[in-house]
Amino acid sequence: MTSTTHALTDTTTDTATSASRRTGAAVAVIGAGPIGLAAAVHLLERGLEPIVLERGDRAGVSVASWGHVRLFSRWSELIDPAARRLLSSRGWVEPEANHYPTGAEWADEYLRPLADALGDRVHYETTVTGVARQGRDRVVDSGREEQPFTVHVRHADGRAGRVTAAAVVDASGTWTRPNPLGSDGYPADGEREPDVAAHVSYRVPDVGTADDVARFGGRRTAVVGSGHSALAALVALATLAEKVAGTKAVWVLRRGVVGSAYGGGDADQLPARGALGLRARDAVAAGHIEVVTGFRTLAVEPVADGTLALVGEDGRRVDGLDEVVGLTGFRPDHSIMSELRLRLDDRLEAPVGLAPLIDPNVHSCGTVYPHGAGELAHDEQGVFVVGMKAYGRAPTFLALTGYEQVRSVAAALAGDHEAASRVELTLPETGVCGGAGLFDAPDATKAEAVGGCCAPAAPQLVQIGAPSDSVGACGTTGC
Prior knowledge:
Layout: H1 15-23, E1 26-30, H2 34-45, E2 50-53, H3 61-65, H4 81-88, H5 103-118, E3 122-123, E4 126-133, E5 149-155, E6 160-170, H6 194-197, E7 200-201, H7 210-216, E8 220-224, H8 228-243, E9 248-252, H9 271-285, E10 289-292, E11 297-302, E12 308-312, E13 317-321, E14 323-326, H10 355-358, H11 373-376, E15 383-385, H12 399-413, H13 417-421, H14 444-449
Parallel strand pairs: 1-2, 1-6, 2-3, 6-15, 7-14, 8-9, 8-14, 9-10
Antiparallel strand pairs: 4-5, 5-6, 11-12, 12-13
Helix pairs in contact: 2-5, 2-12, 8-9
């Protein structure tokens, strides 16, 4: 595939549709995750033809990689409205609205059927390596906006190719770029050395698998981070401690006190999220988890006895570690758009119009104003970064937010600016945001049966089977 063109039926006049009429080009969507697939469906409803470019061999590969994690959003909050319409027209049976799915269920029961419904518009094993204006590098002004986009791709067999696009929607996410352990944003000293790196991971352990039971069972693990992925990892390890003697966890926080790291508790409008924090708190109280606060990691050192030590900037040490799990959030990679004129906030690496709305020093999920094409726009007309990647380094993303983004973006690309500027979303309120949950009563009715919507009536550890980031994905955390 060296180029791809599709006929369009839209008759409005804006950057995307004007370019599509001249070139027959589709709108390129990068990534076949929840937000990318939703973008494709919204574009179809607007009469624009999408082409979805996915590096994996199937839809939702990032979601599937944390398939053991149970989301703290119900099915009703994880299905895009346009996607629901498309799937329902094909006889799809929607999952029970109040059930909390795992990542694997989200991928298998929603994302893959949605990709199948989009058919050959989704191209797998196609990695985007760069995006530019056709015949124009970043410097050239002349005739720039009249040119379509060239999307450079690499196929599974190593062949390079190009896709001509009228507009570009980047929904490639941040899952493959976890933040390092170092408190200054760079890897801690020793973190990437082979003898250390073999014992450092950046994912929530899956203690329902033999591999992770062998890796973490009966061993001492440091969990670095303060978001919900970190809480999920801690509760997983605490549960493993109930089954495998000698299993210990050390929670390493940069903040001086635990404080709001436990989340919204009983007041959280996402019950599974509140329950996760309460159960992590109970695990600490039960003595399964040691807490170290005010610790900023400078180095990870191998010790002669075969263990590891975290060394803090203030000289303190966390010794006797067998494993380290770093869950300090994610960051975007905008390098594929280095020849485009993006306007990114210098702190969050998010679009400058969006950054003030998602600043984690000020906002949580519930205080982020629903936003769309206006806040996501760049100087390069016809280019939008959406989903978790739009949030840059901010850890406050929810799937509902991404669905609202792409609804607005599709409307803008089709020239319906009134619809693009309209707000069609109300978000739940909470004190802390993240993307991963553990909930042993995943249905709302079961949660109520054990004592309210948000937590068990009496302290107990969450019981983990296979479940144990993000939307997309979902694994975003604070630090």
